[in-house]
Amino acid sequence: MDTIRVEGLTKQFPSGWPGRPPTTVLDGLSLSVRQGEIYGFLGPNGSGKTTTIKVLIGLIRATSGTAELLGKPVGDVPTRRRIGFLPESPYFYDYLTAEEFLTFYGHLAGMDRAGLARRVSQLLEVVGLVEARTRQLRKFSKGMLQRVGLAQALIHDPDLVILDEPMSGLDPIGRKQVRDLILGLRDQGKTVFFSTHIIPDVEMICDRVGVIVKGKLLATGRVDELVNQGHTQSVEITCQGIAAERIPAIQALASRVVQRGSHSLIVLPRPDSLEQALAEIRKQGGTLISVTPHKGSLEELFFTSQGPAEQARPVARS
């Protein structure tokens, strides 16, 4: 069963100027997210990720197309109780403590007092904030605020968790903590849909990924399927006993040759030239040390999808 299903979603905003056409932010977007998976929604800033999420949670209406969450149309009130959401830039009342903050949201979700107290303690432990439970949020770091925001999204034990750029602005330790939390949600059978422009996070934890550029979904599938589809593997050969950079036959096969003393590093752009390169190394009296294949990366797919005009704007890898 699909937890999220989007078909032909289009969103246009008025230009604000007479005679000018509206701005199209989403252009016929279609995607599906299966139950119990982590789905990464990858795209550069301004590609339509946040607009998609706002349509899904009912903050704005699509111009055309349909969207369903948990088998019900977007906006179905009972279904909203089964959804947890963390926006990209959440606002927290600074003078509440972490415990008070989560208790407040638990009351909004209609939880009873006894069950809520247990749930708050449980979530503070899950997000690693037990020692900070009585500390005011204004004294929290960016990473701590992100974690308490995740706890808020989970306070009512939702089936679907939607996160908008949950790792943006975090240091490596904070990103690891958030990644571990997301993986823990999948282990509990939850479905997680999160947007990001940070490629390594997607490669590390997502079951499937969708690449959105200029409001269109350009690729979707498992990470290993996407990086191997239409991308050539390169191969690195390490050998010793020959000066590979001086051998024309090897130079003709390689995209790069690096000589370090008696060792040579030979990079082949295509795996089909491996046997020919190895034969040449043996012919020249060299000794093979290692052969290392390199698969395509999600970053490679991401830049290819954007096209030449967009590639000038690098994707953050913080």
Report on the structure:
The protein has 318 residues and is α/β, with parallel strands linked by helices. The chain has 2 domains: 2-228, 3-Layer(aba) Sandwich (Rossmann fold); 234-294, Alpha-Beta Plaits (2-Layer Sandwich). It contains 12 helices and 14 strands. It has a 6-stranded mixed β-sheet, with helices on both faces. A 4-stranded antiparallel β-sheet has the order 2-1-4-5, with helices on one face. A 4-stranded antiparallel β-sheet has the order 12-13-11-14. Strand 9 (208-213) and strand 10 (216-221) form a beta hairpin. It is elongated and about 80 Å long.
List keywords for this structure.
single chain, alpha/beta, Rossmann fold, Alpha-Beta Plaits, 6-stranded mixed sheet, 4-stranded antiparallel sheet, 12 helices, 14 strands, disordered C terminus
In terms of topology, how is this protein built?
Elements: E1 2-13, E2 23-34, E3 38-42, H1 49-56, E4 64-69, E5 72-73, H2 77-80, E6 83-86, H3 98-108, H4 113-126, H5 142-154, E7 160-164, H6 172-187, E8 191-196, H7 199-205, E9 208-213, E10 216-221, H8 223-228, E11 234-240, H9 248-253, E12 256-260, E13 263-268, H10 274-283, E14 287-294, H11 298-306, H12 308-311
Parallel strand pairs: 3-8, 3-9, 6-7, 7-8
Antiparallel strand pairs: 1-2, 1-4, 4-5, 9-10, 11-13, 11-14, 12-13
Helix pairs in contact: 3-4, 5-6
